[in-house]
Structures are given as C-alpha cells and as structure tokens.
Write a structure and sequence with these properties.
Among the domains are: 196 residues, ANL, N-terminal domain (Rossmann fold), CATH 3.40.50.12780; 89 residues, ANL, C-terminal domain (GMP Synthetase, Chain A, domain 3, 2-Layer Sandwich). It has 18 helices and 27 strands. The strands form 6 sheets. The protein has a 9-stranded mixed sheet with strand order 2-1-11-10-12-13-14-15-16, sandwiched between helices.
C-alpha cells in the first residue's frame, strides 16, 4: 500500500446493483446526464436514468439475453450508457465495439466475442444484412436510432418501452438477476498500436477497484464534459463509472469538432482527456496569444502569478480570465491519460489555474494504475499507484529503467480465448505492461517508453523514442512525429531519424520559406540538452498524417 500520500475517504461499492440503487434513492433528483437533441438540451435525473437501465434490462431478460454477451457500437450517447450499465448490473457481459472499425473488423469481433445481441447506431445500418449472414449466432439487432422496428432489426425506443410495460406489470426477472463479481463482465478489444486486437477480460471486481481505489488518490468535480470514446476503458471506467458513483452530472459531447463550443454550453468543472487534446489546446492558446499580441504579456504574467501564489495570493482566475472563459469559465481540472504528456503542458495548465492531473493505465489493468494528485502533482510523472496494486521492475537497464509489472485487484482475468497470449504477459498474478519506467523518491511512477518501441543502437544504447518525440513536439510547426532507428547496410541501427508531419498553416503563418534548413536548425536546438546519442541525425517530411488508433495514438 502506498503510504506516501494522504488518502481520501471513499464510500466503497460492492456491486453495480448497489451503485444503481443508491443513485435511484439518495440521489434520485440530481441531474445525471445532459445532452443535445437538435437545439435543445435534454436533462436526465439519476432516478430516470436507473429506470431506463431497469427497462432495458427487463426487455433483455424477456428475450433471455440478460445473461449473454451483448455488444454495442456507436457514437457517445445517452442510449449507449443505458446499455452499458444494464449489462454491468446483469449476469451477462458487455462488449463495447470500436466505432471506427470497418465492417470486417466488426464482424471479426462479433464472431470472436460470442455476442448474441448487437445494439448499433444508424451509420452501421447497411452492415446488418451482411453481419446476419456472417455471424448467425447474433440473434437480435437493436437500432439505437430506429423509429420503428422492421424485419431487419428492433427499434431501441420500442425495445425500452416494452421493458417499461413489463416492469409496470410486475416482471422482476432482471431485478432479481444476480452477477458473480469474479468472472467476466466486460470484454474490451484493445485497439493497440501494433498487432491484432485482443479481447481483454475484466470482472466486476476489476471495474469496482478503479472506482474504490482510484478515488482514494484523486478526486473529481461535480460536472464533466464527456468527450473520449465510450468503447475505450479510460472513458468508460475511469470516466463514466467513477462519475456515476460520485453522482456527477455527465454532459455528453456530440462531436469532437464541437468540444470548445460544448465547453461553453455545458460549463463543466472537470474533463477527461488524452494528451493529443491538451497539446491542441496548449498550442491554440499560444497561437491566439501571439495573434492578438498578448504572448509576451502571458510569458511575463505567469512567473508573477506563480510568485504571488508562493505567498498565498492566487489571482489566476482574474489574470488568465480570457483563457478560462474560452473553456466555459468553470473548468478546474483536466484528468489526462492514455499516453505520455509533455511536462511543460502540465505545468502551463497548472500555472493558469486549470489543474492537470496526469495518470497512467492500460486496458489490461482496468485501466488505471496510477494518477497524480494534490499532494504532489508532477507532470514529469504519472503519479501514485493505486493502493490495491503492487509494482515491480524487471530487466532494469543501466539507466535504471525496467519493465513495469503490476499485481493486484485491477489486473485483468486474461485474454478471451487466448491462453498462450495470456500466459506470455501474466505470471503468478503479475502483469507485464511492456512499458519501461521507474519510481522517483516520492513514490511516483515515471514511464519512459514502450518495450516494443525501444531502439537499440549498435553501441548498445537503449533509446525510448517517446522521450525524444516530446522534445521535438515543442517545435510549433510540427504537428506529428515519430523517432526511429536509421540502419546501415548490415541492418544495424546506427543513429536516429525523425519522421515528421508538418502543420502547414503554422509554417505559412511563421513565414518559413526554406523548411529543410529551418527544421534542421530547430531540431538541433530542441534536442540540444539531450546526450549526443539521443539526438536525431536526419529527418523525413511526410505528406500525410500518421495512421492512428481511435485514442489518437500513432500506429508505429
């Protein structure tokens, strides 16, 4: 157990059944969800939300599917969440499917996951006939956006209405359903940056551990803008489930292009993001400051503000009011995970009065392993490990970095129908994250890079490309980059090369005429504090963006 920080008191939960019962009684009139419907904002209380979950569950029990594997695919929506919580409370299994998959990818996951029900959004309507042919054991198709049921599929609205009628008539089949907290409850297919998706098996105990132990080391506000995809565990577990447990109001973002607009509409006090978002926000703030001639003033005010804070005077809300107003005026916290973040971005947001908590997780760990908190919020680290898990480091290098292994309540059951792959990463309860890292003297975890991405130079030096990419990303006109090894004729990696995708608008704005000469100079300046063997010797400019996963990670 981590004893280096003061732990928050948490009302722990033993089941999702218990969480929903509390939501429908003690907090029944609190607003659970807000979302846009045409030009209107719909508000749903916790009592109404739980009633909808019970209705969907009763309708599923009526067709004997509440104990089966149930898949859902679609954009973030209130209906998506009702299906999610319905299955978590049931004796069945929820299978969230990546909304960016093509038809073949969806079919492969439906086959592998043994799903017998598919809830789907309208954009997949044209796939349904082919899915029926390819995956005959999917018995029920329920269209989230269908007005009327037809011979192809059932309307969600009619389906939930049937559940309401059954409930009103005294049907308690779903309400009497009991789940086993130690067996498979959620089957998540990793997007991964390499290889084929694997089905990560998470139990009810795994998911509840993120709530119960995560809240010990961090806290959330009362109103969140829900942005990240629900089919990923970071938003679905560390986001939705923690927020529901804490009875926060979840405002559902309807489109990534509308994030700033919805921040101003819903005015949340906290938000979950991945580093790609914070990077965009950070660069836009400085670009706007430069465009309006306020960038020099901003650079002067930040150290003055920090000096005032040291003597107990906090004026950040006033000094940086225009930035706060752009984020809706109430934003206090950004909880960031999913990939490494540049420390200067974390420091910047903290300096202007929007606290950024950086964390670390992996789907196989339900997905949260560690997170920063008020005790010592250091964006050079990914924070303090949850108290329910132990961490050890194997194969430690001369630089002190080792493979990060995790053991505890958050560790998955294994990969679905993949014993060999499970045995490769799970040893006596210890899970090999295949990330490299170390602990600092305060007990905070530092992640240095992915094992699969390590570059081994001919001189034996191990290079974590993520570290160097963080330095290169500081160059304002570089939109994306990866660092890789440059090989000689014998196949040995002798030096480093950066593959770069430029922000052409920024290149134009900065009046850069000779991009190659400018880039060569800026790369040298950006990495000059690194040892010589970590500096790039050459670069390539891409014409197109890198291919990415749905959490915006570059596929290497």
């Amino acid at each position: 157990m981590n004893t280096k920080i003061k732990l928050n008191e948490v009302r722990t939960s033993s089941s999702f059944k218990e969480i929903l019962e509390i939501c429908s009684t003690e907090n029944k009139d609190d607003i659970a969800f807000e979302y846009k419907n045409s030009n209107n904002v719909v508000k749903v209380t916790y009592k109404e939300f739980v009633d909808d979950v019970y209705a969907v569950g009763t309708a599923l029990a009526n067709i004997s599917m509440n104990s089966k594997h149930v898949a859902v695919i679609g954009e973030n929506s209130y209906k998506w969440v009702t299906i999610y919580l319905t299955m978590l409370r049931s004796s069945g299994v929820i299978v969230p499917i990546d909304k960016e998959l093509n038809k073949e990818g969806i079919i492969n996951i439906l086959k592998h996951s043994d799903s017998e029900v598919l809830f789907y959004a309208s954009k997949y309507e044209d796939y349904i006939e082919d899915i029926k042919k390819e995956v005959p054991f999917v018995k029920h198709f329920i269209g989230l956006d269908k007005d009327k049921s037809d011979f192809v599929s059932t309307s969600y609205n009619e389906f939930i209405q049937k559940g309401r009628e059954l409930l009103a008539g005294g049907n308690k089949d779903y309400l009497n359903d009991e789940s086993n907290p130690t067996i498979l409850k959620m089957l998540v297919y990793t997007s991964g940056t390499t290889g084929n998706p694997k089905g990560v098996m998470l139990s009810e105990n795994n998911l509840l551990s993120i709530i119960n132990y995560g809240l010990q080391v961090t806290h959330i506000g009362k109103r969140c803008l829900s942005v990240l995809p629900y089919h990923h565990t970071y938003e679905a577990v560390a986001g939705l489930l923690v927020e529901i447990h804490e009875h926060a109001t979840i405002c559902i973002n309807d489109s990534l292009k509308n994030v700033l607009k919805n921040l101003n509409l819903f005015k949340p006090d906290f938000i979950y993001l991945v580093p790609a978002f914070t990077e965009v926000f950070y660069k836009n703030i400085w670009a706007n400051a430069k465009k309006t001639g306020k960038d020099k003033m901003l650079k002067v005010i930040i150290p003055i503000s920090n000096a005032l804070r040291k003597v107990g005077i906090d004026l950040r809300r006033k000094l940086f009011k225009s930035i706060h107003d752009a984020f809706g005026g109430n934003l206090n916290e950004i909880i960031c995970g999913g990939a490494p973040i540049r420390p200067e971005i974390g420091k910047f947001f903290n300096d202007i009065g929007i606290t950024l908590y950086n964390g670390y997780g992996i789907t196989e760990c339900s997905p949260l392993v560690s997170v920063n908190n008020d005790c010592r919020n250091d964006s050079n680290t990914v924070g303090y490990p949850l108290t329910c898990c132990d961490i050890k480091f194997e194969n430690v290098t001369d630089d002190g970095d080792g493979e990060v292994w995790v053991k505890g309540d958050i560790v998955m059951l294994g990969y679905y129908k993949e014993k060999e792959k499970t045995d490769r990463v799970l040893k006596d309860g210890w899970f090999n994250t295949e990330d490299y890292g170390r602990m600092n003297k305060y007990g905070q975890l530092i992640i240095t890079g992915r094992k699969k991405n390590i570059i081994v130079l001919e001189n034996g030096k191990n290079i974590y490309p993520e570290e160097i990419e963080n330095y290169i990303s500081r160059i304002p006109y570089i939109k994306e980059c990866i660092v890789k090894g440059k090989k000689n004729s014998y196949g040995q990696e002798t030096s480093l090369i950066a593959e770069i995708f430029l922000d052409q608008e920024k290149v134009k704005e900065l009046n850069i005429e000779d991009i190659n000469s400018t880039l060569k100079l800026d790369l040298r300046n950006a990495t000059q504090s690194l040892p010589m063997y970590k500096r790039v010797s050459d670069f390539e400019i891409r014409e197109t963006e890198f291919v990415k996963t749905t959490t915006n990670k570059i596929k290497r």
